[in-house]
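Cross-posted from the bioinformatics board.
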Amino acid sequence: MSETTLTPRTQVRRLPKRGVYDRDAINAILDEGFLCHLGFSVDGQPYVIPTGYARSGEQVYIHGSAASRMLRELISTVPMCFTVTLLDGLVLARAAFHHSMNYRSVVVLGQARQVHDADEKTEALRCFTNHVLSGRWDDVRLPNAQELKATHVIALPLNEASAKVRSGPPIDDEPDYELDIWAGVVPLRQVAGDPIPDVRNHTAGPVPKYLIPGVSVTG
Amino acid sequence: MSETTLTPRTQVRRLPKRGVYDRDAINAILDEGFLCHLGFSVDGQPYVIPTGYARSGEQVYIHGSAASRMLRELISTVPMCFTVTLLDGLVLARAAFHHSMNYRSVVVLGQARQVHDADEKTEALRCFTNHVLSGRWDDVRLPNAQELKATHVIALPLNEASAKVRSGPPIDDEPDYELDIWAGVVPLRQVAGDPIPDVRNHTAGPVPKYLIPGVSVTG
């Protein structure tokens, strides 16, 4: 299946031309981001909390401490919302009204499933670690039984997902193009600086290849 | 007042040492970000939607089309959550379990007030425009009556707000410091590329000072 299920809840209503439902486009956004924002309600009050995540096939994994209130809430049967946003640029129009931003976002609705199986939990942790920097899992001290127990992992299927994308130049009202006002786009991107080694590193430790400058930093 | 109201809902429970309630620290995070994630519930389903915002004193403004479902929901009396997150780095520990991210986030809970007054609405639009790039408002074609009418603006007070900050190196379990594994931080930051002028710009138009390379791009 190459498209997600388009439901009344995930259909992009405002500016529908910005809606994207193609699975590959959605996956590409999810694989580039580092942080998601999770939405859930407690006693009628919505909360939006940033956290890490990783995609594995047609689901995303989220993890956290077994002591986390957020994870406890998400593990119960409450519906949740999972959103990832990549900011690509500031869109400067001639009119204040038409200022905008270029961005790519994915919104997923659904209910999370708690991962209990030790093998799947370990696989989820592998995904998290490699989502941060590809190949990192091969270098680290792997989770022990106690750490696995202290970690809650939930999985959210990507069935009910949609993406929204804005790109390109500003769109002004036709008469405003005559105005002598600079308009255009200021592109924004996330870049990695030089890695800062921990002061307690052993000097013998090689610098992993994923830390070599110039290697692109995406999830 | 220099501190926000600490309520049971905004007190940071997990890892309380990461909690920050100082007003200046909260404002600095809000002023640096471009995007917020808004959380609200419709028929028990939480939604998390990215959008622009601007702080003005002890409130944040959000705006959108009068046709926006999100704005309509937020204008009703539903409680909402407003979250801004700045990602500062990837934290690579020796143990997979202790991998983390450096970040600064602000969570605000409350109910939004719709801005009806034309003067306050214009002031909010000025804040949005200058939040994108400081000084931009002075250069643009200002909103007309029709545009003001087509724009909904809401204000959310910063009373019930808290920030959460993680910074610094990884923290591993003591025995793991003996391991020959590279650990440290990969700093991340958002940078602006060269401005891309709209193809329909007039050549006579000067490049605004806020687009000169090297000028820091924060909200």
